[in-house]
Amino acid sequence: MTVSAEVAQEASEGAVALFTANNVWMMLATGLVFIMHLGFAGVEAGFGQSKNTVNILFKNTITPIIGILTYCLCGFNLMYPGDFNGIFGFAGFGIGAGDGASIDYAGGGYTYWTDFLFQGMFAATAATIVSGAIAERVKVSAYMIFTVLYVGFVYPWLGSWKWGGGWLDGMGFYDFAGSTLVHSVGGWGALAGIIVIGPRLGKYVDGKVIDKPGASVPLAVIGVFLLWLGWFGFNGGSVLSADPDLTSYVLVTTSLAACTGGLFGFFTAYFVFKRLDLGMVLNGILAGLVGITAGADVVSINASLIIGAVAGVIVVFSAITLDKFKLDDVVGAVSVHLSCGIWGTLAVGIFGIGEFSFMTQLIGVLAYGAVAFPIAFILFFILKSTLGVRVSEQHETEGLDSHEHGIRGYTIVYDD
Fold it and tell me: Fewer Cβ close by (within 10 Å): the C or N end of the chain?
């Protein structure tokens, strides 16, 4: 073998090794994002009332099933249609037409199959955000129909505007891992849902906000820490390779923003409510994570601390504002994902290291809101006018578990 042939062989073996390492990390990141569904289930079941635990867990179980299947059917090819006019494109139904395990796919970062599954996990997350906001009074059938349409069509279509090489990508709009594309899109859907469906019975009485104690504070805490863990895959995987420097940097900015988000959620809640509010610490952590997601790879360490801190303040006042308008959000999904998703996206235009425009970021935020919210509102309104979106007063009062599912989430049985 000649020297040149040996060099070529070594280069080829090195490329294959790098390709394998990149793909293994991307598969691990996919698993971490999948774990986030368990985190969402824990948060929602923990903050929800015990009489609705099975109902909440049922929706959280069915959501990734619907999300992954619809993403396979049409979502992936809506989000990544190839060459298109920048507004709408579709590469056809189903998956399997890609380059498979070819090293030529995605520049040697990962396989076609890994790409589909990683992005499919993101799609299902958008629906889970809606689930938490409208919990404890929505019909499962209406929620499932909404999820099929919103995750199967709306989310990937809007995602193509940036991640699919659409018109916003051409403008220079930046959203690293989805503060807007995932979290705000889910948040707009959640806001539309709580407006159309209305608050839970007895939530607002004579101008006062009535607390409805959650079933399990420990479960909510476990859920938040699972989400934090999952965010290492959500943001770390969005590097789209196992690049050691950039991946580790993204994990650092992500964790720091979560810390300052939780800390300032605690400080703000103490200033406003005069108590050590664990719920606001937990939502502050999630707020920081959502806030940093748009720019985790392009902001400085100090900026990540600021972004998280501001998100921790925003989430508290956003929750207070919603209650003033009698908008009942069971888990604070709108405050965490929509309010802080908007903030995180705009923060790229303020703190981003490079050529980032605040006005371009603002245009992106407004564009997604101008389309996602009306579509979600119309979907919920049509469902309300036809099938109905809300359970009966009796079922809501007595609990959805017994009436809708025939079992309870917490049951103690003593032998005679």
Answer: C
Residue with tokens 């999630």: 286
For 21-36, what is each residue's pLDDT tens digit?
999 999 999 999 999 9
Instruction: Classify burial at 205, counting beta carbons within 10 Å of its beta carbon; exposed 0-12, middle 13-18, buried 19 or more.
Output: exposed
> Which of 354, 115, 352, 356 is closest to 241 using CA atoms?
115
| Angle formed by the axes of helices 112-133 and 3-47, nearest 10° | 10
One-letter-per-residue 3-state SS of 209-229: ECCCCCCCHHHHHHHHHHHHH
Contact 105, 98 (CB under 8 A): yes
d(C-alpha 281, C-alpha 183), whole Å: 19
Give per-residue pLDDT as tens, 369-416. 999 999 999 999 999 999 999 999 999 999 999 888 988 888 866 665
DSSP E strand stretches across 282-409? none
Q: Are strands 208-209 and 204-205 parallel, antiparallel or unpaired?
A: antiparallel
Tokens read off for 22: 């990149």
DSSP 8-class letter at 100:
T
Give the H/E segment covering residue 406.
none
CA distance 148 to 41: 19
331, two tokens: 């888990």
Q: Whole-angstrom Cα distance, residue 123 to residue 151?
A: 6
Helix, strand, or coil (residue 208): strand
Helices (H), 274-357: 278-293, 301-324, 333, 340-351
| Look-up of token digits 């839970």 | 200
Q: Who contacts 212 (Cβ-Cβ below 8 Å, separation ≥6)?
A: 49, 200, 202, 203
Count of CB atoms within 10 A of residue 38's CB? Answer: 18
Count Cβ atoms below 10 Å from residue 239 Cβ, excluding itself.
Answer: 25
Cα 187 from chain centroid? 8
